[in-house]
Amino acid sequence: MEPIIKLNNLTKQYGTFKAVDALNLEIYKGEIFGLLGPNGAGKSTTIMMMLGLTEPHFGSALVCGYNATENPIEVKKRVGYLPDTLGFYDNRTGLENLLYIARLNGISEDIAIQKATELLTRVGLEKDIHKKVGTYSRGMKQRLGLADVLIKNPEIIVLDEPTLGIDPKGVRSFLKLIHQLSREEQLTVLLSSHHLHQVQQVCDRVGIFVNGKLIAEGDIPTLSKKLLDEAPYTVEIRLQENHQENLIAIQNLLKQTQDIKNVTIEQDYLSITCTKDITAYIAKTLINAGFNLVHLHKKEFGLDDIYQRYFENTDENYRQTA
Amino acid sequence: MIFTNVILKIQMKTIDKLHNPISFIKEQIASSLLQTKTSKQEKIHPFWVMVQKETADHIRSWRFIILLTLIVLTCFGALYTSIGSLQEALSNTKDPNHAFAFLKLLTATDGTLPPYHVFIGFLGPLLGISLGFDAINSEMNNGSLVRIMAQPVHRDYLINAKFTAALITISMLFFSLSLLFVGCGILVTGLTPSPEEFLRILAFTVLSILYVSFWLNLSILFSVKFRQAATSALTSIAVWLFFTVFYQFAVNIIARALIPANGVDPMKMLGYKKLIMGLMHIVPSQLFNDATTTLLVPSVRSLGPLSYSQMYGAIPSALPLKESLLIVWPQLTGLIAATVLCFAITYYLFMRREIRA
C-alpha cells in the first residue's frame, strides 16, 4: 500500500539548532498516528512542513501525492489542520467561524450553512451555534476545532495537542469522537501530544520524537517489546511467607520455560519478567509446588514506561556526549 | 357557460398582470429575491471572502465607530461654521475664488473651527492608523493566522485582503462624507455645484483616501514588524506626531544653521529656499496640505518660490482644474510612492515571516 504521508529525510534548522533532524516517516490511509514527544521536540515544526507553511532545509514531505513545499495549495485542500492555539475569532459565533473557513475552501454559502450545522450537531455544539466563541469553554472550542477541520472534507486531519487543557472526561469523549470519525469516514488522523495515556487509547501507531529525531515507531506492544529487553511483561506475586532464601529453588522451578527472563525476590515479594503473557502458567507452577499466593498482578508496560525509558536513555546519551 | 367563465377569469388574470404595475413590481422583486438565493450558491473567490470578512470586522469594531462619530461630528461642525461665513466670503468680489461656493464651503471659516480639509488632514492619519495597527499581530497572537494559512489560500491573500478591506472602508466613508457635504451645501445655499467644482471635490476626496491609505500602510507595516499591538499603535502615532509637529522644528533649526551669510546673492538665496522647501516636502502631511489647498483654492498657482519675472503681469484669477492638477502632480506622485513603498516593505516582511507565534 502506498503511504498517504511520506516524509523523506526532512530537516529544519534554526541557526545551528536542528529542530527536525533527517526525519523519515510513512503514514498509511485510515490509520491514527500519534506523534509523541516532549515540548520543543519538533512535532509542530514537522506538521508545519507537512502543510507547506515552513520550508524544510533538506528533504521532502509528500502528502496525498503532492510535495508540500512546491504545491502547498493542493496539500492544504486535502488536509484539515487544527493548531494547538485553535485561533478562532472570539467576536464571531461558532457558526460564523465555520462558515468563514468553509467559504475559504470554496464551498458555496448555502451548502456551507447546511454542512456547518450538521457538523456542529455531530460534535455536540448544536445549542451553542449562535453563541460567540469568546463564551465557549476550552473543551467546546476543541470540539468546534474538530468541526472546523472536517468542514472541508479532508482526507487527512492533523491535530496539534488536541487534548490540551480539557478535563479527563472531555478528553475521553473527544478521543472517542476522533476514533469514530476516523473509522467511519476512512480518515487518516495524525495527532501530536505529550499526554501518553490519552494517545494510547486511540492510536494505531505511535512515533516517539525527541530532539528532532524519531527514536521509535510502531504499535504499542511492538514498541514495548523492542524497548524493554524483549521482556514486556512483569508478573508481581506476593507470597504468604518470606521465601527469600528459597530464591534459587524458585528460579530453577520457573526457568524451565524459556519465556521467563528474570526472577527476583525480596522477602515475600516475587517479581518475574517474561517475554510472553504466561501469568497462568506461573501461578499454576507455584501453586503446584506448594507456595501460597496471596496476590498476583500482571504488569503491562504502558507508553509512560516506554517514554520514560527512552528519555532515560537519551539523557544518558547526552551525558556521554557532553 | 362555466367553462367560458373560467377562460374569462384566466384571461383577466393575464391582463391584470400586464396592466397592473404593482403586481409587475412584486414579481420582479420575487424573482430578484430568487436570484440572490441562487447567487448564494455561487463560489466566491477566497480573496474576496477574506475582504468581506475584514470589512465586516472594521465596520463592527468599536474603534471605527468612535472615529466615525468623531469625524462626522467635527465635519458637521466645520460645515456649520463655513455656512455662517459663506455669505461674507461669496460677496468679497476681490477674492478670485468667490465664484466657487462649494469649495468655499470646504475651506471658509470664521476662525472658531478649522475648515473641513484641515480636519481631514488631522483626523485622517488617526483613522488610517486605527484601521491598520493590529492587522497582522493580533491574528498572530490570537493564533488564527496559522489556522487561516492552513486553508488553501496563498499567503499574500491575507495581507492584500487586509489592505483592500481597509481601503474600501475608508473610500466609502470619505465619498459619503464629501457627497453629504455637497448635498448639505445644495440644501442650505440653494446653489448647485458646477462640474468643475464637483470634479475638484472628487479629486480632493481621492487625495484624502490616498493620504489615509499611506498611514494605513505604515501602521500595517508596524503591525507586521512588532508583536504587540500596543507597540505598533504607539510607533505609528509617534511617527505621525514627529511629522506633524517636530519635523517642522527640526527643519527650522537646519534652516537657521544654513542661512547664507550675506543674503544678497539671489542665486544662493534661491538654492537655499529650494533646499528648505525640499526638506519640508518629504513629509506626507505637507504633501497633503499643499495638494488640498491647490485643489480647493483654485487661485493657488505655485507651491514653490516664484521670481518677480514670473509674477509680473499675472492677474489674480482662478486656474482651471487641469492646471491645478498639474501643480499637485508631484505631491500626488510623492504620496503614491510613499504608500507603495510602505506596502512593498510590509509585503516583503510578511512573506518572509515565520507564521508561528
From TrEMBL, chain A:
Keywords: ATP-binding, Nucleotide-binding, Transport
Database matches in CDD domains: ABC_DR_subfamily_A
Pfam families xrefs: ABC_tran
Domain ABC transporter: 5-236
SMART domains found in the cross-reference section: AAA
GO function term, MF aspect, one: ATP binding
InterPro entries with a match to the protein in the record: AAA+_ATPase, ABC_transporter-like_ATP-bd, P-loop_NTPase
Highest rank taxon of the organism: Bacteria
Nucleotide-binding is among the record's keywords: yes
Family of this protein: Belongs to the ABC transporter superfamily.
Protein known as: ABC transporter domain-containing protein
